[in-house]
Backbone:
């Protein structure tokens, strides 16, 4: 026994030494989405001979959390979408790494009418579902009809409803009763039966299948530029109508669809089962543990190289790290703050080249991992100003008046105040200190490669002199005299006190507010910004009530298209909460509608360039940072298609040495 | 004794009601919108989403209606189907585990029970043995070592010990792995040939005659058991040692020695049974603790038991799941307490006779 104790004590001491050798953690920022789920085609670089997987047939992914549902019409999180887009398929698919070029998938080809409103898809013959059913044009039409009729704002259906019903008509309830029964099935079931049937028939008339000809015709309410990107993602998946009906889904009748409206994952019979046409079949989903996919041997193309895929949900970082070290995980989710701990295991270092838009890899030793860094992500943070702050009972505006001890409700309605804030922010410090250099400053809302993106677009820089000039040009007491020259005093002489909020736990948003506060105090000691963290529920509630004067917001795109960026920041989620003035919203809405309706790429590009200019001049918000990826995989993993818009890994092309 | 047990049994529903009302009540400090926000992981993709969640889950209903709904479920007027209602055996739907709570408990509890069964013997018996040794060899080197061990065991956080065990035995030596079972075995147990008799993986493996699966399952339990044992031994050692030392000083032990009985007999026959009384209480609580799921150990070793699932639900404020686990744990606690009481009565005549 004594010997045992001695041995054990030695082990404990040894392991302390081991642990002490680990790297130090950087401040927490965003979760890394570039880990194996990363982007750009795998260089297929020299995987040296000694890096061989013990089991090349099975791909193991160690990830965080679990999926919500396997119903493609309802799933709206990347974890669910990852499984769905490997099991189900869409009419069109992304061309390799391209986010805006599409290749045929379940549609062999398609045509668009001259007026840009009618798409005709020719459905690929000879494709079978995993459970044996044959793909028909009717299945395609039914899948779209079912999704749109199932509706619900918790689902992605709002993106599919708009092209068919017109801008702003983003749920079937709007067609039935102007949106009165939105997300309320009981109300929907009690709605006028004639209106229910009419709404259903309207969508059935817009999406028509011709099984004899093998075509599906989709008639849009208006030309819709980003239609293909919208239907290429997981929510455009095609299901087998007979199978859905047999398993308790909607029977396709216009008399019953309301019973399936606003379905939740809990009631949805397709949350736990799947039957697609994809390269992988769902073998098993054990919630909270793992999802196992098996190769579809009857795939309409050549079967995948991998036999199985195991996606394990492992929330504890230490355990994921151990699996990565032991070689038991081929890819693992590594949060940004944990990356420095893993970097020493790199044997291959791949850096994203912004000019060639690809990774350039080099060997850096004999470590077992491949590291990819430097690729801008699909999410960026934006500082947002509330134009008409709700001051009643609002604890975040101090006195609520321009007396040096608060801010009035219309504080940010003055464009010069917004510009002052934009110039007072130190973008580079945020990138260097908080993101450890792994980020870029965005120049516009659209991301690189999108219509409307221009690397030389006008954007705000850190310039304290310009900030001072802007604040001096403000006129908050509305006497027509700029604050810098106002003898009666204005914001420049009285100063202000305002709270900048972030959601507790989001360190990078906290740091944004701190950097802003520090620099405004340099511009004028009377400019006081107090940084305050709120628990998520309170933060979201205050945000929806337009009580937060200034905050940092973020957006992760659904589709790689400027419409998906401008809509939330002008007329959608954020624009509403910022209470943008109606005239400004109208100006933005014209751009938005023109941009979405334009199908000519060059003309679209120009519309969004003008949109950028308007957003820059009016400064409802300032894009501040776009974190770049930092992901890890084993060096024996080959063939990854690293498309930025993929929700996760696309296993069809992956193989292991 | 019997009336005492019956009285305690009658208290069960009252206690459970109290627990659920307490959890439900605390939640009402949040507004409907704040509670809806718990369903949203990040900025809502669509501004109408939060209102929709309030409608779908009835979060704007008064607390007594929501509580009643949880108890009895809701009946769809058009179809006449009842959904939910714990009185009907439906504990609701777990948002974090994407399945009904009852299914979640059914899925995870066997794993926890399996771990408890295999961990109980080393945890309790070795712990007691260590304590007895330390007491009998009072102030010897063994005793001093045991004290150091006890202090370290009490003060070293579970997750630190667990992660160190992972680094040494999994990453370094590759002897034991995290998780429940290897992927190869996983394919076997999910195949139709493998019958699930008990739901407990180790026993099912034996009943199917698959010793490879049995040993693989055990191999994955070694590190959790080691961690649990190490943390528990410290406590057992302390309690047993103190109780034993006190007993050894009692006059009847002195008398036994004076009669010239061998030391072994004195310790095993006279001293130890009496010293065990507080230890049994402790053992009861330890086993209940294990059955309720061991959050940190299960999380570190990615062991899919009830502790890991409950912690996950609590972290994401999945109230329905937390309530389900609270009820379930309540039952376990009460049942385990009864067992401990009966054991007490068997060991200590004073309990029987009072």
Residues:
């Amino acid at each position: 026994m004594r010997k045992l104790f001695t041995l054990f004590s030695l082990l404990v001491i040894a392991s302390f030494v081991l642990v002490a050798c680990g790297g130090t953690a950087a401040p927490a920022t965003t979760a890394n989405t570039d880990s194996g789920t990363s982007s750009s085609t795998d260089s297929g670089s020299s995987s040296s001979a000694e890096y061989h997987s013990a089991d090349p047939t099975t791909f193991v992914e160690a990830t965080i959390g679990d999926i919500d549902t396997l119903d493609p019409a309802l799933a709206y999180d990347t974890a669910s979408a990852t499984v769905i887009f490997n099991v189900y398929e869409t009419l069109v698919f992304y061309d390799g790494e391209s986010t805006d070029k599409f290749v045929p998938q379940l549609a062999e080809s398609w045509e668009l009418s001259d007026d840009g409103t009618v798409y005709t898809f020719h459905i690929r013959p000879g494709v079978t579902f995993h459970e044996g059913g044959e793909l028909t044009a009717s299945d395609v039409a039914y899948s779209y009809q079912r999704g749109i009729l199932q509706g619900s704002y918790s689902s992605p259906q709002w993106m599919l409803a708009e092209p068919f019903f017109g801008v702003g008509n983003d749920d079937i309830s709007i067609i039935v009763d102007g949106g009165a029964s939105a997300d309320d099935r009981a109300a929907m079931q009690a709605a006028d039966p004639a209106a229910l049937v009419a709404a259903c028939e309207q969508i059935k008339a817009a999406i028509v299948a011709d099984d004899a000809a093998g075509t599906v015709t989709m008639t849009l309410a208006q030309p819709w530029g980003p239609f293909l990107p919208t239907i290429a993602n997981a929510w455009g998946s095609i299901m087998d109508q007979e199978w859905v009906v047999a398993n308790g889904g909607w029977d396709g009748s216009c008399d019953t669809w309301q019973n399936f409206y606003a379905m939740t994952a809990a009631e949805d019979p397709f949350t736990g089962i799947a039957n697609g046409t994809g390269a992988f079949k769902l073998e098993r989903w054990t919630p909270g543990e793992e999802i196992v996919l098996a190769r579809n041997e009857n795939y309409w193309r050549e079967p995948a190289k991998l036999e199985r895929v195991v996606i394990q949900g492992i929330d504890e970082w230490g355990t994921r790290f151990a699996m990565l070290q032991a070689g038991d995980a081929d890819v693992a989710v590594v949060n940004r703050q944990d990356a420095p701990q893993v970097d020493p295991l790199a044997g291959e270092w791949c850096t994203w080249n912004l000019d060639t838009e690809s990774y350039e890899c080099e060997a850096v030793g004999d470590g077992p991992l491949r590291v990819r860094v430097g690729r801008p992500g699909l999410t960026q943070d934006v500082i947002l100003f509330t134009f008409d702050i709700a001051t009643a009972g609002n604890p975040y505006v101090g006195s609520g008046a321009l007396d040096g001890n608060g801010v009035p409700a219309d504080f940010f309605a003055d464009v010069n105040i917004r510009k002052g804030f934009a110039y007072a922010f130190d973008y580079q410090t945020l990138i260097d200190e908080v993101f450890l250099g792994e980020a870029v400053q965005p120049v516009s809302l659209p991301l690189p490669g999108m219509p409307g993106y221009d690397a030389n677009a006008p954007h705000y820089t850190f310039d304290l002199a310009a900030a001072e000039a802007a604040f001096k040009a403000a006129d908050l007491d509305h006497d027509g005299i700029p604050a810098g020259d106002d003898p009666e005093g204005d914001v420049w002489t009285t100063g202000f006190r305002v709270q900048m909020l972030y959601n507790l736990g989001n360190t990078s948003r906290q740091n944004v507010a701190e950097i802003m506060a520090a620099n405004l105090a340099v511009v004028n000691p009377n400019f006081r910004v107090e940084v305050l963290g709120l628990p998520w529920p309170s933060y979201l509630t205050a945000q929806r009530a337009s009580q937060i004067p200034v905050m940092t917001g973020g957006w992760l795109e659904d589709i790689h298209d400027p419409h998906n960026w401008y809509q939330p920041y002008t007329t959608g989620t954020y624009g509403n909460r910022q209470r943008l003035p109606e005239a400004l919203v109208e100006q933005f809405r014209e751009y938005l509608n023109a941009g979405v309706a334009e199908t000519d790429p060059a003309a679209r590009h120009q519309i969004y360039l003008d949109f950028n200019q308007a957003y820059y001049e009016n400064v409802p918000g300032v894009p501040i940072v776009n974190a770049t990826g930092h992901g890890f995989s084993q060096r024996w993993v080959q063939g990854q298609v690293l498309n930025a818009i993929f929700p996760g890994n696309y296993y069809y092309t992956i193989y292991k040495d | 004794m019997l009336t005492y047990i019956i009285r305690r049994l009658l208290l069960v529903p009252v206690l459970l009601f109290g627990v659920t009302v307490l959890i439900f009540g605390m939640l009402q400090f949040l507004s409907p919108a704040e509670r809806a926000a718990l369903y949203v992981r990040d900025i809502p993709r669509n501004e109408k989403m939060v209102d929709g969640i309030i409608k779908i889950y009835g979060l704007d209903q008064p607390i007594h209606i929501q509580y009643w709904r949880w108890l009895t479920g809701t009946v769809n007027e058009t179809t006449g189907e009842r959904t939910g209602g714990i009185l009907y055996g439906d504990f609701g739907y777990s948002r974090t585990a994407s399945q009904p709570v009852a299914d979640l408990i059914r899925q995870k509890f066997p794993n926890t029970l399996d771990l408890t069964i295999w961990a109980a013997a080393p945890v309790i018996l070795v712990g007691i043995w260590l304590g007895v040794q330390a007491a009998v060899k009072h102030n010897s080197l063994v005793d001093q070592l045991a004290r150091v061990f006890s202090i370290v065991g009490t003060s070293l956080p579970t997750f630190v010990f667990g992660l160190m065990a992972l680094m040494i035995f999994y990453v370094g030596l590759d002897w034991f792995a995290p998780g429940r079972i290897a992927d190869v075995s996983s394919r076997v147990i999910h195949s139709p040939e493998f019958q699930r008799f008990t739901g407990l993986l180790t026993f099912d493996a034996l009943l199917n005659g698959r010793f490879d699966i049995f040993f693989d399952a055990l191999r994955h339990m070694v590190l959790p058991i080691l961690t649990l044992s190490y943390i528990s031994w410290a406590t057992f050692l302390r309690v047993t040692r103190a109780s034993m030392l006190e007993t050894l000083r009692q006059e009847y032990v002195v008398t036994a020695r004076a009669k010239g009985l061998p030391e072994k007999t004195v310790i095993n026959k006279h001293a130890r049974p009496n010293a065990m009384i507080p230890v049994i209480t402790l053992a009861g609580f330890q086993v209940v603790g294990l059955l309720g799921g061991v959050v940190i150990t299960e999380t570190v070793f990615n062991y899919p038991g009830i502790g890991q699932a409950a912690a996950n639900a609590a972290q994401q404020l999945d109230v329905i799941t937390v309530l389900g686990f609270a009820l379930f744990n309540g039952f376990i606690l009460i049942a385990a307490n009864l067992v401990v009481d009966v054991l007490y009565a068997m060991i200590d005549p004073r309990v029987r006779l009072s």
Remarks:
- Chain A touches chain B through 75 residues (CB under 8 Å).
